[in-house]
From TrEMBL:
The lineage of its organism: Bacteria, Bacillati, Bacillota, Bacilli, Bacillales. It comes from the Bacteria. GO terms for biological process: methylation. One of its GO terms (molecular function) is methyltransferase activity. This is Class I SAM-dependent methyltransferase. Its EC number is 2.1.1.-. InterPro entries: 16SrRNA_methylTrfase_J, SAM-dependent_MTases_sf. Keywords: Methyltransferase, Transferase.
Length: 262
């Protein structure tokens, strides 16, 4: 990884880039007039770019950069404001004041909806194993403005932690979060979704393990939720009860603590 800025970056953005380079102990490269293709060709490694209005990660083997944008979450939030349904909210049984642990943050769409639904009294912690992705998303959550105060505040309330989920879960007390949520990476959906392509080279592909689910069941007070492809064997393998939707490639499954699944 190297750190640079956009060609038009202002002084404070140069300072931000230098800070990240020092934090991660990686090279800071003064951009000058170099194109991104030239930087990727010269260094042959990912490039973290601090721009005036966003932060992006370019990978030598990907055409498009990774960056935070809450487009889908914002559309879902608007539907919730119109009293329309959200499958994730229903599957998780999300209510105001709940605490949620999102074990696989990615672009943070579900973390945002969880925070939006849980409100000011709720708590959402989102885990991301890739520290560079975590940084880009954290910046976006704090700085991106939708024009809707409640949505922006929901983004800003999310606590992003750089960690793999098993290690983090092992450190938590039993029943410390109402909801523990898993959304493991699945290739078919990524291949079909252009906006997810940049994740392919950056995301962690650690499979959901029995240990992770057991720790999730211990840490969750209400339920553990799994999002996966509709025909995924993970639901049966780990004891989730799937909630399938007609004509959808995605399904949610739950393990209810109150039903004795501990």
């Amino acid at each position: 990884m190297i750190i640079t800025t956009s060609k038009q970056a202002k002084g404070n953005k140069v300072q931000r880039a230098q800070y990240l380079a020092d934090k991660w102990e990686v090279p800071f490269v003064i951009r000058k007039k170099a194109s991104m293709k030239a930087l990727l060709r010269e260094w042959n490694q990912p490039v973290y770019v601090v721009e005036n209005d966003t932060e992006k990660i370019y990978h030598p083997d990907e055409e498009h950069p990774f960056y935070f944008h809450p487009s889908m979450a914002w559309l879902r939030a608007k539907r919730l404001l119109n009293n329309e349904r959200d499958t994730f909210v229903e599957a998780a049984g999300l209510q105001e004041g709940m605490s949620v642990l999102d074990c696989t943050m990615g672009l943070a769409s579900d973390s945002i909806i969880a925070s939006f639904s849980a409100g000011e009294k709720g708590k959402v912690t989102a885990l991301e194993g890739n520290r560079y992705m975590a940084e880009a998303v954290t910046w976006g959550l704090k700085e991106w403005k939708s024009g809707n105060e409640s949505f922006d505040e929901a983004c800003q309330r999310i606590n992003v932690v750089v960690s793999d989920h098993v290690t983090f879960l092992q450190k938590q007390q039993s029943d410390s979060f109402d909801i523990v949520y898993f959304d493991p990476m699945f290739h078919e959906t990524i291949d079909a979704s252009t906006h997810l392509h940049p994740l392919k080279k950056l995301a962690w592909y650690n499979d959901l393990t029995a240990e992770a689910v057991e720790e999730g069941k211990r840490v969750a007070k209400e339920r553990v939720v799994l999002k996966d492809e509709v025909h995924s064997p993970r639901f049966h393998l780990h004891g989730f009860t799937p909630r399938k939707r007609k004509s959808s490639k995605i399904a949610f499954g739950t393990i209810e603590k109150k039903e004795g699944n501990t």
